[in-house]
Fold:
Amino acid sequence: MNIDPDRLVANLREVERRIERACERSGRRDRPRLLVASKYLAPEEMSLLSGAGIRLVGENRADELEAKWRRWGAEFEFHFIGHLQSRKVRQVLPCVTMIQSVESLSLVEELDRRAESEVRVLLEANISGEESKYGILPEAAEAFLERAAAYRKVMFSGCMTMAPLVADPEAVRPFFRGLRELRDRLASVFSGRYEFTELSMGMSNDYQVAVEEGATIVRLGSALFSST
Ligand SMILES: *Cc1c(COP(=O)(O)O)cnc(C)c1O
Structure:
């Protein structure tokens, strides 16, 4: 990745402006957190992000995460946002404040076994139902959480989704709305056990729509690193 620091800051300011406008359009008073996808950067390039004032990053791969955390653990808060295999749990846990991509009971079990204290996670939902996607189907989410609730150290605090890649971001609005409705339903059903507040949705292509639909975390990569 070859990116000029001034370009990154300019891209970041533009994204922040657009997020602000999306909040105003939808009458939101709270503001989403911006998470930067760090898969585009090598560990030694991460200083670009801290230089631009970015504090929250999301990494997809366990080995990359560990390398970046070892070098930059004091600069950033790390979330894990990729597909997590059970055998990587031990490696990932010390590096992160949240695992956004929990979508199997075996993973919940392993997290509970390995965590030294409570670990915050999001339920990854496959809202579009595409077969190629990871995630729990909305209609299966309640049954999943009923079983997951027995694992006391694993604290679900919201939902995450990856919307289908489409040319027109308006086309994914129903999926973001669907994730919000799922979150609201789970918040009410599991109110004694979990606080379902977070909605991690929206990427470079569609974050403005996601913000309008209530995203509390948007996950951005290419919009920040593009040179045009
Ligand atoms: C890469 C990635 C993003 C950011 O994608 P962009 O389209 O580059 O903004 C967000 N979420 C996840 C899970 C990713 O892997």
Summary: The longest helix spans residues 5-25. The chain has one domain: 5-225. The domain at 5-225 is CATH 3.20.20.10 (TIM Barrel).
